[in-house]
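hey m, so remember when u said the tokens were messed up on ur end? i reran from scratch. heres the input so u can diff it against urs
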Amino acid sequence: MGDIALEFNDVWKKFKRGEKYNSLRDLIPAMTKRLFSGNHGGELQESEFWAVKDVSFQVKRGEALGIIGPNGAGKSTILKLLSGILRPNKGGIKVNGRLSALIEVGAGFHPDLTGRENVYLNGAILGMKKSEIDKKFDEIVDFSGITDFIDTPVKRYSSGMYARLGFSVAAHMDPDVLLIDEVLSVGDFAFQRKCIDKMQSFTKSGTTIIFVSHNLEAVRRLCPSTLFLNTGEVSFIGSSAEAIEYYLKCLHEPFMATFQNAKSLSNKGDVVKIEKVKLYDDHNIEKTEFKTGDYIRLEIEYFAKEKIFKPAFAVGLFSNGQLLSDINNRFQGYDVEYISGSGKLNLIIPNLLLLPGFYEARAHIADKDSLGIYDIESILFFVREGKRGMGVYYQPHSWEQRHIKNDET
């Protein structure tokens, strides 16, 4: 057991729907009521729900475990339980050694202080001694890549600079156990690679990592094993490749019902077949994970048994079975003269406006009058945070303030 860095044993955690305390005036009566209710653990009361249900796992020293799952699955609750922010209603948690949590990078920064001053402030909040920060200061700043701005107040930093410095401070704590939540959305691609390399060096030196992320490729690269969490329960735990495959399969099931309905409308037999639908980034790398604002090339690979004149190609973008956008080659005045045999048609989306979530791209080929559908194929893809917003899509915009002078008479 001495080889075990942390244990999560039959842990349960419940919350009350709509529970929110903005002041001690709200919190104290609620805690008093709970104290005298006689229900401190087991049974659910009215409006309560289990955010984490009977979850167990162990992680050895120097290992990295990924935790994946949809929003609301309980991933962040597990991190807060491990870090001691929350306590379980049932079950036990054991962490052996010094723990550091990269749950909200830069959370302890003061906007009016310079980057240099905030390195010391944030480091102290995270439990580092001044002598330790002195020793690592140059390495922290160099890793962040903002050396020229280290003596500038952080309120003048971009969000990327702010988060990069926060990650750099926390990443140089040399903890025994490191909890990470979505920090790999920080900065540009090159910095994200530095983050992954840094975390890989942690595991080689014996640090244990728990990595919660929607970035499935980062989870695959960093973690040999992954836990798939769904509605507070463990759906799968095993190799990362298997966990991710199982996760995507589960996510694809709601899409498949509407897809099969659409497929049944295909009434042109097997004259034209869509062989594959693929997605590529701006480096011509095939992938199914993008950020809001990214370039995407969707490739439709087809085979036509006979010559088809003026076919219509269309791609529908869906979320939970609901059509968000229908893109047709004819809407843009682009005609395909004919198709025959094997071929490919590319749809270019230079600026993806979808906000974080899972989406389906459903491609179909129809006849020249768009009355009969030859074939339909679908691909699921994930969008993680790039440009920020709320809702389903990002609306390009800017802000402008104008001061109106009151007329004086």
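this time it looks ok to me. The chain is about 25% helix and 35% strand. if urs says something different then somethings off w ur setup not the seq
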